[in-house]
Amino acid sequence: MSGFIEQFYYGNIEPQARGISTNKTMAKELGVLNDAEEYLTSKLSGEEKKKFLNFVNATSVVNGETALDSFIVGFRLGAAFTLDTFVSNDTPFTNLLKEDI
């Protein structure tokens, strides 16, 4: 079996392939958003419809960029924990019972 990084590289690990079936609150709110967008899109016309759709699209872009930023920051935090755990032996006190590992 290949390592994690190789599997990730070849697309065999998809961290975003997730559903919301067990999160009833999120599923409900997504339904509310979808219904509202469909309703407003059908009721608006001309410049108002264009402005609303621009708002919806801009919101999607901002949410996507925010999710990307959170992913990057979280990944870096996890990497920092790993680095500190496995590479650094720095501690505030000296171990008097045995040599540092």
How does this structure look, described?
By secondary structure, the chain is mainly alpha-helical. It has a domain at 17-86. Helices cover 66% and strands 0% of the residues. The protein contains three helices and no strands. Helix 2 packs antiparallel against helix 3 (46-86). The longest helix is centred in the middle third of the chain and has 41 residues, at 46-86. It is elongated. 0% of the residues are buried. The model has no long low-confidence stretch (mean pLDDT 86).
Q: Bin the helical content.
A: 55-70%
Major sheet size, sense and barrel closure: none
Shape: elongated
| Beta-strand content estimate | under 5%
| Rg for CA atoms | 23 Å
Order of helices and strands: HHH
Oligomeric state: single chain
User: What distance lies between the first and last C-alpha atoms, to the nearest angstrom?
Assistant: 31 Å
- Helical stretch tally: 3
Mean pLDDT: 86
Contiguous runs where pLDDT drops below 50 for at least 5 residues? none
Content-based structural category? mainly alpha
Entry summary:
With 101 residues, the chain is mostly helical. 66% of the residues lie in helices and 0% in strands.
Key words describing this protein structure:
3 helices; mainly alpha
Describe the protein's topology.
Layout lengths: L3 H6 L14 H20 L2 H41 L15
Helix pairs in contact: 2-3
